[in-house]
Specification:
There is one protein chain. The longest helix has 22 residues. The strands form four sheets. This protein has a six-stranded parallel beta sheet, with helices on both faces. It has a two-stranded parallel ribbon with strand order 6-9. Helix 4 packs parallel to helix 5 and helix 8 packs across helix 10. By secondary structure, it is an alpha/beta fold. The mean pLDDT is about 95. Bound molecules: NADP nicotinamide-adenine-dinucleotide phosphate.
Length: about 300
Amino acid sequence: MPDKAPRIPTLLVTGSNGQVGFELRRSLSPLGQVVALDRGACDLSRPEEIRRVLREHRPDVIVNAAAYTGMDNAETDIENAYAVNATAVGILAEEARALGSLLVHYSTDCVFDGCQTSPYAETDAVNPISVYGKSKLAGEQAIAEVAPTALILRTSWVAGIHGNNFAKRMLRLGSTQAVLRVVGDRFGAPTGAALIADVTAQIVARAWLHGDGSAFATGIYHLAAAGETSWHGYASEVLRYAAAHGAALKTNPDRIEEIAACDYPLPAQRPANARLDTTKIRQTFGIYLPDWRKGVHHLLDQVLA
Ligand SMILES: NC(=O)c1ccc[n+]([C@@H]2O[C@H](COP(=O)([O-])OP(=O)(O)OC[C@H]3O[C@@H](n4cnc5c(N)ncnc54)[C@H](OP(=O)(O)O)[C@@H]3O)[C@@H](O)[C@H]2O)c1
């Protein structure tokens, strides 16, 4: 008698047109059938639509890459930010629990106020200083209340080939402007959307699909590239690498002017210290997190190709 064919797991991705969502379509594909849903296919501001879509697909794994990420807009568009970042996350958690699915959700360094002088660990006190940060924290809390089998991956300074981000903006400005002024007193680790998606797939594969579900280490994990820099250091790296790889720039990469955050006011406050301590994810899952420059170079190789 031939062996029965193994059941192919279904992995459902929301926000599949975002930076991370786009990369998840690739990284999750060796694990099973990926159902990639953009806003048109599953609008997270519509609770009934979320429930209908999840009950239709009955996924083994739900990866929520959708979010209201417009930090400055969120300051005035509060209701919509909470609908997507908090209410919808609670619904995803309820449906995941009912289906017995694993829920993977992303959160942010913006749940912290940035006043701490060392990198933030998962156990450090949260205190968001923006509507976006508050709404993302409410999403984390919604998951904790419903208590599905869930992983919350907090990340920072995300940049991917698909979507808008700081690295692409610096490249654009560096190509058109002789003088560039960038904030030098805000610190974090630029993290590639591809790295986030790859680590997500590694964890899902190791701990859930091919492991013992009962031993699965759920909870909050910090996921960011290794090392740290300021926005000014990040911009300098982008332009130096671009110049070395043939980009025609108007800005001298070594002459980007460093300014203070208070000289570049934005509607939403950002944490001065966005550094995340990644010891827990590295030790729990045996994940190697490369230096942030690797992710920037990988992104620029694609953008400049
Ligand atoms: N970007 C960062 O620097 C950063 C930093 C820390 C943490 N994070 C977190 O990392 C995760 C992924 O972020 P990202 O950078 O990939 O974000 P992103 O590029 O802005 O993508 C977010 C996606 O969510 C979708 N979306 C927004 N509202 C929606 C709705 N009502 N229904 C369905 N989809 C909706 C967007 O759809 P449209 O394409 O239609 O707009 C977009 O495709 C998020 O949880 C974010 O909070 C991001």
